[in-house]
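re: ur msg from earlier - yeah i can do the FE(4)-NI(1)-S(5) CLUSTER with Oxygen complex, just paste it... oh wait u already did. ok heres what im feeding in:
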Amino acid sequence: MKKEKFVVDPVTDEMRKRARKLGIRTVWERYKENYARSKNAPFQATCMTCQQGPCVDVKRTGVCGMNKDIIVAKNLVSETTIGASAHVGHARRIANLLRGVGEGSVTAYSIKEPEKLNRVYKGLGLSGANTDGEKAVEVADAVLDDISKLTGVPRMLLYRALEDRRKLWEEKGILINGGCPEIMEAMNRIAMGMDADMENLLLGACRLGLVDAYCGMYPATTIQDILLGVPKVIQIKTNLTVINPKEINIIVHGHIPALPDAVVSAAEEYNADPTNNPKINVVGMCCTGMEVLMRRGVNYAGDILQQELAIATGAIELVVVDIQCTQPAIVDAAEHFHTRVVTTDPMSKIEGATHIEFDPERAEEIGRELIKMAVDNYANRDQAKVYLPDHEPHDMIGGFSAEQLLEALDKVKPGDPVGALVDNIKNGNIRGVVAVIGCVTPRDEYGYRTVELLRELVKNNILVILTGCVATVASYHDLLKPDPSYPGVGERLAAVMDAIAKANGLEALPPCIFMGACVDNSRIEEVLNAVADHLKVRIDQLPVAASAPEYIAEKAIPIGFWAVSLGIFTHIGDQPNVAASERVVKWLTDDVEGIFGGKFYVEADPHRAAEKIIEVIENKRKGLGI
Ligand code: BF8
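and the outut:
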């Protein structure tokens, strides 16, 4: 569909108009104000590091003599470092929580998945523990050691990455040590007077990709599964209209599902008392929302771009945020209403919000305190200021952990679940697999790039796996709704999905498979590794691709470098700030393929992107002779 004819989510559209009328500035207004003024910035080589400069829009060299290629590569390493540090910080927090549970000092959480704990314990090469508690402590310590150790490859990388990849990374000099020393070295690398070799800098960014994956995303997902449960297929509702004007609404927002899990439990406890009326309605936002939808069946209110719009309903008593992707402007939006914003992480406070620090040892107590805060604040709600568009929420199926996917496939081919997928790839029912991940952008029509790309891919019998905010707009266009007529899905793919659904007693599968939050990209590698292993080929030979059509966060950049280092063709809708250097652009979109087998490809137009991705997949199929 052409952009002009693209149907924007009517709920978001209506709420944007309302926000404008109320004088609430949303991300789109701020985008127009700021990006319009600085739209040449992505084409500039600017270095702000030392006091000889700043060297702005460098044409030849900066004051120190760094040419623009080096400046651009250095800036990219800087952004990549920020992204990787976010996921490592997430993993560190959740590993400390696991340690507390294992030791017994944290009682609000327990080992929900002893089988997974045991599997991971063995996978990390640990032995000698007798109880689940001891195993939990050892797994937590191994993850914390992976994060901190000065020398030695992280155990999680040794456990999860395929051996041929690890050897390639070693040969190319990007095999990593501990996550924090790598981040420190990356910052050191880009200090004034340090690395002035473009390729060396960009290989440094590839290292950060591995840091992000094996010291960030993998441990975060793994430990969250152990403590909070391995996701299973679950049906929920999405969009702002899951906010219930007749109930007390709490938004849980951020990325670490630990406190949100306690809030959900405290809300259930409150709602179980028949004398408590109105009831509490907890809804999710951003990746925390995806975590609680996958494991607790909590309805999903919206993505990064819809934060102010949720508050603009006037029906939100409380927004509880943990870390990352919170627009500080939610506090300004909240000032128009009675809404309270509570921050909970010492490294992520917002001026104007209330700060209640999350302490895992007091998780239940804090959960109840937050519920009380919301209930008390309900008395301050002005019902005359409440407004919700008259649209039904959308149905969405989520919960596809790698374990759940394999379990479903096992019903199709008992004893050989990966074979069930591989058979359908080989015979062309599934032409290839594409992981569409990441954010939604204010730079384009809301959701256009994502939705159109998804439609093209599923129409062409490509199996699509989703993580992150892209899933939101996918659900608004019913791409995550199970419909036995499989509208818009290629005939052969639809037949495969139907067979899997029927084998599992389901009416249908959704057109795309939702695997979770951004840290759950690790689940995607698990599946790809299993397919590569089954076929006895390298990942870069597989008919697969990755795409972040609307990425905005720094976190997406190390994820992209990880995907490329895995050997995956990786589409992005906008390029980071590298256009000033033709050499950097060429390395990222061409040269790197000769090193790892994967490369970046930049294309804002979803139809052209889909065409290219399908061409790449067909070439890979030819290469495999299938
Ligand atoms: O990690 S997709 S806007 S919410 S960065 Fe953020 Fe992007 Fe959304 Fe979660 Ni991921």
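cool cool. The first strand starts at residue 234 and ends at 238. ping me if u need the other ligands too
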